[in-house]
Structure formats: structure tokens, C-alpha cells
Design brief:
This protein is mainly alpha-helical and 137 residues long. The protein has 2 domains: 42 residues, no CATH class; 92 residues, no CATH class. Strands 1-3-2 form a 3-stranded parallel sheet, covered by helices on one side. The longest helix is centred in the C-terminal third of the chain and has 13 residues. The two termini are 21 Å apart.
Length: 137
């Protein structure tokens, strides 16, 4: 675990993470991230998760999933952000395409269970609330 992509790659190279330093923003390099993850795990990575809206088709507004999560968790301070043309926009599309080019197609409801390797969208805050039996973020 690391506070940024660069720190994660550096961690795999044997450098300690400085949790007090402000991480530098950078665009992710999926190939570099996979190599770092495989180094740290000591095994091939089967599943990549990303806390960012992604889809197999372009989108620039809220999706049904965004509304369902916000309805269920919004009062608990875990509503989703509204996707726009700019965010995640081209960055999200490029991220998804880059992982697909590396063999990590995006998993959807049509994807067979245990079909790997895959890229999945996640939103960890509601899961953490539930796992920690906490009512508000």
C-alpha cells in the first residue's frame, strides 16, 4: 500500500514509503503498476481494482450504479461523485484501454465468475463502513 502510484512503484523497488510527505500527482502507468504489484505479491496479478468510474462505453453523467450506491450510502456520507465528460473522461478511458491492452479487460455483470485477469471498478468506502460496522464515514 502506498499514497501514490510513484510511491507504490518505489516501494516495489525497495524504497520505504514516507507517509508524511505529500505525494506527487502523476498519471498511472498500468504496465509499471502491474510489474510493481507482481514484485510485491511474488505472484501474477489476476485482479486489478480501481476506485474510479469506468465502463465499456463512453459516459459523461451519473450511471444507475452511482444512483443506487448514493441512495443506499449517501446519508452515511458515502454518496458517489457524479462522473462528467472531464472526470474521469479521457483519463478513465485511457486507463481502462491500457489495462485491456495488457490483458486485463474490464469485468462486468456479463463476465464469467473467476474469469481472470480482470479490471474492476470498486468504491471501497461503503465496504469499509459495512466491514467496520460503522454508521457514518
Amino acid at each position: 500500500m502506498a499514497p501514490s502510484y510513484n510511491c507504490f512503484v518505489a516501494l516495489a523497488a525497495g524504497n520505504a514509503v514516507d507517509w508524511t510527505a505529500r505525494p506527487l500527482a502523476s498519471a498511472p502507468d498500468p504496465k509499471q503498476l502491474l510489474m510493481a504489484a507482481q514484485t510485491l505479491a511474488g505472484a501474477k496479478v489476476d485482479l486489478v481494482t480501481v476506485d474510479m468510474p469506468i465502463a465499456t462505453v463512453p459516459f459523461d453523467k451519473r450511471r444507475k450504479a452511482d444512483d443506487v450506491v448514493s441512495t443506499e450510502f449517501g446519508a452515511r456520507h458515502c454518496g458517489t461523485h457524479s462522473p462528467t465528460k472531464e472526470r474521469p473522461g479521457a483519463q478513465g478511458a485511457a486507463f481502462t484501454a491500457a489495462f485491456a491492452a495488457l490483458g486485463y479487460a474490464m469485468g462486468t455483470t456479463a463476465t464469467a465468475v473467476q474469469s481472470y485477469p480482470r479490471l474492476l471498478e470498486v468504491y471501497p468506502h461503503p465496504a469499509l463502513l459495512t466491514l467496520m460496522n460503522t454508521t457514518v464515514r
